[in-house]
Amino acid sequence: MDSRFNDIFTSEANEVFKVVFFPDRIYHNEYLNATRSPRYRYNVQEVRGYLDITVLKGEVYVDGTRLAGFLRIEYRGSRLVEQTRIKNRFLGERLVAWIKLRDATDANTPEARVTLHWDQWVEAYQTEIWETLEMPATTHHDFMVLDMMGDDGSITRVDAFSSLLADPHVVRRVELAFREAEVNEPFGTFISDQDAAWDNNLLRSHQEPRVPEPSSQLNTVADQNYLLDFQRGWYRDALTVTPVRYRNAMMDGDSNPDAAPGNIILMRWLFQRELGGSMIFFHEVTVPAGKIEGNHQHIGSEELYYVVSGEGIAYLRVGDDPATDAKDSSGKDLFEIEERHVMGLSPAQFRRLPIKAGSMIFTKSGGMHGIRNTGSTEDLKFVAFLYQSR
Question: Tens of pLDDT along 268-283?
Answer without folding.
Answer: 999 999 999 999 999 9
